[in-house]
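QA checklist item 7 of 12: single-chain prediction sanity check.
[x] sequence parsed
[x] length recorded as 92
[x] structure emitted
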Amino acid sequence: MVQALIDILSKVIEVANMLLIVWFLISLAFAFNVISPRNQFAFAVHDALSRLFEPVLRPIRKLMPNTGAIDFSPMVFILILWTVSRLLQTAA
């Protein structure tokens, strides 16, 4: 039972990592004008992922120093998720 719960949490963390990377790549594509923000599909995906991750990334941004145009909070969140995943695997 515990192993099944750990496996489910590990998969949720993997999906969150993938979605965070997609969100970050779309943000970069918007920032460097590779994709126009007027592209409805890209904007909809970016908006949905922003709404999903913004409540988690906001406290991380408050703790981190201001680095200008580069936002390192997604990388910090990925490292946190990776650490939690490793702790879960060790506990299993």
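[x] summary fact logged: Residues 2-91 form one domain.
[ ] second reviewer sign-off
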